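Structure (tokenized):
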């Protein structure tokens, strides 16, 4: 099967307004390389990068040229850029992004959500890179996916983007049926499958995706011939076939039909020897996606985990929506949400059982040397683009697998699964120079993946602090999100060291960050049900004016807050009460 090619154009990275030439050569000296093939650390190594590729890796000193950029890698740890093998750009992660799962179109227009999903793609690119994720696989969406890969990614600094078009599925959610650009196509015959495949082929998909949904109306055996036919077309065109199949019986059928990649865990039963043998014999890659389902339930109840990565790196507007259910009464939400509000214990038990099965299965498959790859299913409700990645890794760790197993799943295994291991996934001569430079060793502690010093994307050195430049509105919204999460560290991180808070018009209330921290830390500890809803917002240059409706215990108040943002931090707040 031929390798999926990585198209890099003329070796430039472009932001919306600026294009920067890739450094002619980069030398990383005296560093520690994480060898993802062996699981060992190679010490005192030197890496030469020329243009977009790794030119050499050696224990011998590399002589620098006049225009070489030299990085002192002493006490640093270098690993390949990470890969998220399961995302969806047509979904933002917000409460409104899957109307088939939660229909709130009467609250927020789905057409607006579709446009928002397109608008934030360049922002998502930067968030992925900021967290060391240098390749992403969009495993199903509208035909606009190809424009993201072929145009948006080329005109913005971005990870490597691999895509397919609409999902082949025996079932199509009604919410998608009338869209001009449909992400999930209903396929009920071999002829319909052929038509969609031939329509997609000129766009050069990087792989094909089947949503192998089963029910009484379309059991797996009934739709199997269609799956088998799509598999045949896929392999005839030297592409990989990815399949969504979450129960053991259907997953086995998917492999027998020719699936190369299973994009979700088996979650109904503990896997058996037949399944393991099928995976290994057919060299099938298994992507667990452990956190995505549970994030739906948490969002429906307005109880996101408020993970530090989400509070720090998720798109603030998207993450804000996950508490919007707090402001929606029983009169405007679907009936099942009303029932869930009354009793969510059954849902908790359902997730607990599924989690247990998925974790056991992951450990079994790793122990049996099945190729496992890391994927988040980012874009689904509650699963944020980029910031969900470390959460998926933390969930994988709960299965009992080792740190090197996780790092392999996030790099070389993912590359092998998609036929990209000659180009990415490890640090070797001739491969794309996609690297993450860490201050600490992730083999010792997986949380050390958060100690990113630099990211190198196709030979271009990226400074993490420079990647995400949030607007004043985004900074203020991040502050509101942290307030609602009662996370004092995330809250204070949005404020400048010389913050001044006033009561209108000019009465100084707080004149230092230390005093502010003490005041809010005490409030976060004492008040369990704080919630700030933004009723109206006006943005003027670096000023953000919010009309806030604040719940404090059982009391409610309206407040006008005027925020001034400078250099990415809130430097002044004036309150009108």
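Design, position by position:
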């Amino acid at each position: 099967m031929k390798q999926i090619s990585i198209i890099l154009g003329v070796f430039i990275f472009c932001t919306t307004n600026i294009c920067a030439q890739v450094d002619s050569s980069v030398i990383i000296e005296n560093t520690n390389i994480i060898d993802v093939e062996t699981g060992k650390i190679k010490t005192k190594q030197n890496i030469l990068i020329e243009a977009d590729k790794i030119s050499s890796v050696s224990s011998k000193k590399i002589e620098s040229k006049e225009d070489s950029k030299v990085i002192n890698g002493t006490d640093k740890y270098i690993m390949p850029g990470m890969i998220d093998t399961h995302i969806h750009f047509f979904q933002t992660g917000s409460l409104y992004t899957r109307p088939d799962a939660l229909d709130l179109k009467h609250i927020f227009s789905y057409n607006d959500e579709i446009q928002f999903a397109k608008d934030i793609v360049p922002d998502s690119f930067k968030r992925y890179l900021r967290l060391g994720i240098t390749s992403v696989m969009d495993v199903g969406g509208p035909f606009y996916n190809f424009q993201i890969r072929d145009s948006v990614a080329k005109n913005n600094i971005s990870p490597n983007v691999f895509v397919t078009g609409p999902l082949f599925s025996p079932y199509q959610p009604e919410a998608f049926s009338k869209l001009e650009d449909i992400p999930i196509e209903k396929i009920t015959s071999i002829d319909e499958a052929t038509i969609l495949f031939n329509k997609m082929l000129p766009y050069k998909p990087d792989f094909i995706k089947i949503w192998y949904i089963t029910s009484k109306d379309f059991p797996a055996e009934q739709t199997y011939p269609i799956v088998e036919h799509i598999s045949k077309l896929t392999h005839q065109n030297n592409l990989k076939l990815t399949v969504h199949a979450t129960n053991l019986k259907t997953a086995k059928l998917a492999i027998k039909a020719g699936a190369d990649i299973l994009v979700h865990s088996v979650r109904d039963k503990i896997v058996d020897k037949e399944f393991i043998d099928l995976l290994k014999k057919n060299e099938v890659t298994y992507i667990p996606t452990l956190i995505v389902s549970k994030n739906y339930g948490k969002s429906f109840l307005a109880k996101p985990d408020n993970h530090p990565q989400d509070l720090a790196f998720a798109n603030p507007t998207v993450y804000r929506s996950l508490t919007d259910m707090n402001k929606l009464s029983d009169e405007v939400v679907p009936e099942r949400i009303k029932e869930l509000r009354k009793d969510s214990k059954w849902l908790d038990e359902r997730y607990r059982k599924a989690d247990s099965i998925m974790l056991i299965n992951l450990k079994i498959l790793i122990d049996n040397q099945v190729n496992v790859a890391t994927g988040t299913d980012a874009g689904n409700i509650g699963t944020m683009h980029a910031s969900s990645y470390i959460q998926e890794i933390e969930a994988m760790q709960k299965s009992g697998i080792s740190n090197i197993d996780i790092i392999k799943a996030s790099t070389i295994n993912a590359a092998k699964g998609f036929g990209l291991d000659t180009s990415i996934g490890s640090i070797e001569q001739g491969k794309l120079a996609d690297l993450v430079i860490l201050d600490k060793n992730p083999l010792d502690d997986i949380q050390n993946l958060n100690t990113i010093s630099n990211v190198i994307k196709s030979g271009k050195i990226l400074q993490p602090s420079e990647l995400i430049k949030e607007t004043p509105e985004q900074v203020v919204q991040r502050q509101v999100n942290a307030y609602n999460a009662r996370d004092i560290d995330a809250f204070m991180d949005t404020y400048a060291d010389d913050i001044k808070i006033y009561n209108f018009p000019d009465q100084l209330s707080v004149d230092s960050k230390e005093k502010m921290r003490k005041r809010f830390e005490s409030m976060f500890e004492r008040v369990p049900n704080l919630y700030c809803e933004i009723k109206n917002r006006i943005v003027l240059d670096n000023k953000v004016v919010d009309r806030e409706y604040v719940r404090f215990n059982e009391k409610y108040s309206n407040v006008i807050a005027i925020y001034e943002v400078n250099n990415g931090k809130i430097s002044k707040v004036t309150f009108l009460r």
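Reviewer-requested clarification: Confidence is low (pLDDT under 50) at residues 1-21. The CA atoms of residues 417 and 564 lie 48 Å apart.
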